[in-house]
Amino acid sequence: MLEARSLSLARQSRQLFSHISFMLRPGQALLLEGRNGAGKTSMLRILAGLARPDEGDVYWQGEKISNSALFRDDLLYLGHQPAVNLELTPFENLRYLSALHGDNPQSIAEILAAVGLAGYEDVPSGNLSAGQQRRVALSRLWLSNSKLWILDEPLTALDVRAVAGLEKRFADHVANGGMLIVTTHQAAILPQQATIQLRLGEIQQEVES
Ligand SMILES: Nc1ncnc2c1ncn2[C@@H]1O[C@H](COP(=O)(O)OP(=O)(O)OP(=O)(O)O)[C@@H](O)[C@H]1O
């Protein structure tokens, strides 16, 4: 279980969020919503242990994530920019990631086909379109057995077909007891019954100095 306890963060004299608490259990998804600049990426980075809040803490299986070796193994974080080595082909990118993630029942060719990159396996990733590069990055979701996925705007640049593939992947992950935290403006792709919503930025005040 992931638990956020009383998270607060100010940036550039603005209180982005104050005393946000929630629990995310196995088989649940969290949809993080809010307008541009509301603090969604900042919140995701805190939940992933990449940044510290001004107040509060995040716990994984009852332990602070900063102290939890388990958390690093259980987490898959995909940030705003697709983390793809542009000098490597999709096949080479996946071979590298596959070595990091360990055993996988699916072959690299199968995963590339699943994300719609059949026929592009050997093209340098720098020569792929933005949506194709995003597909390479998202193929980690097929490689990984991580329990918790934290994804920042994963649908950027994806076409309808790729979005449908991701929707199915999300549903399978959650149905298998995985957890998912995602920012997206397309809420409909999350499994509705299993999704809780958190909206940031409704009230933002100037921080008193
Ligand atoms: N490292 C930083 N230093 C200073 N200000 C920052 C930093 N990171 C974010 N901010 C500010 O915090 C606010 C929230 O940024 P954040 O990226 O979390 O918003 P967001 O909700 O993800 O926005 P978007 O929908 O546009 O991606 C913005 O005003 C941004 O300028």
UniProtKB/TrEMBL annotation:
SMART domains cross-referenced by the UniProt entry: AAA
SUPFAM superfamilies: P-loop containing nucleoside triphosphate hydrolases
GO biological process: cytochrome complex assembly
Keyword terms of this UniProt record: ATP-binding, Cytochrome c-type biogenesis, Membrane, Nucleotide-binding, Translocase, Transport
NCBIfam families attached to this UniProt entry: ccmA (TIGR01189), PRK13538.1 (NF010061)
PANTHER family the UniProt entry points to: ABC TRANSPORTER I FAMILY MEMBER 1
Name of the protein: Cytochrome c biogenesis heme-transporting ATPase CcmA
Source species: Echinimonas agarilytica
